[in-house]
Design goal:
Layout lengths: L1 H20 L6 H14 L2 H5 L7 E6 L3 E7 L24 E4 L4 E7 L3 E7 L3 E3 L14 E5 L1
Antiparallel strand pairs: 1-2, 1-3, 3-6, 4-5, 4-7
Helix pairs in contact: 1-2
């Protein structure tokens, strides 16, 4: 399984490289198909911060900018979570949110899910938490209402 993944990863990378290299000769349809194949395999949606379906996404800055972190279930302690690809903690750092799950999710001020909190409806987004009870830079717990 591990080897197979490695081969698939290499194939995806090759497809993207070929796509880039031959873009000038104009085979754009197959190129974009190759790019999309590469994209999905490389999980570019996560790497770019574009939220893939099914997760609650916290963002470091307003307007879904900066670091991002995806959740598929309750996490009562964000002190051991880091913005994707960084060493910056998610704890007390979230300023906007997208809830792309079918569950309501409550963001809490304190580890252990207490204190000020804001409820995020299923399939909703909020580009600025500063005018919510949770406010900016306070979220320490993500609670899924399953
Ligand atoms: Ca955690
Ligand atoms: Ca907090």
């Amino acid at each position: 399984m591990r080897i197979r993944n490695r081969i698939l990863g290499g194939a995806a990378l090759t497809a993207v490289l070929v796509g880039s290299g031959t873009a000038a000769v104009g085979a754009s349809t197959s190129l974009s198909a190759a790019r999309q194949a590469g994209h999905s395999r490389l999980a570019a949606s996560e790497a770019s911060g574009e939220a893939a379906g099914g997760k609650l996404w916290l963002y470091e800055h307003d307007g879904f900018k900066g670091g991002f972190a995806g959740f598929t279930g309750t996490d009562r302690d964000l002190t051991d979570n880091y913005w994707y690809g960084t060493s910056r903690r998610v704890d007390n750092g979230a300023s906007s949110v997208k809830n792309q799950t079918r569950y309501g999710v409550t963001l809490y001020q304190n580890v252990g899910c207490t204190g000020a909190h804001s409820y995020e409806r299923p399939n909703s987004e909020d580009k600025d938490l500063s005018n919510n009870d949770i406010r900016d830079n306070r979220t320490s717990c993500v609670y899924f209402h399953r």
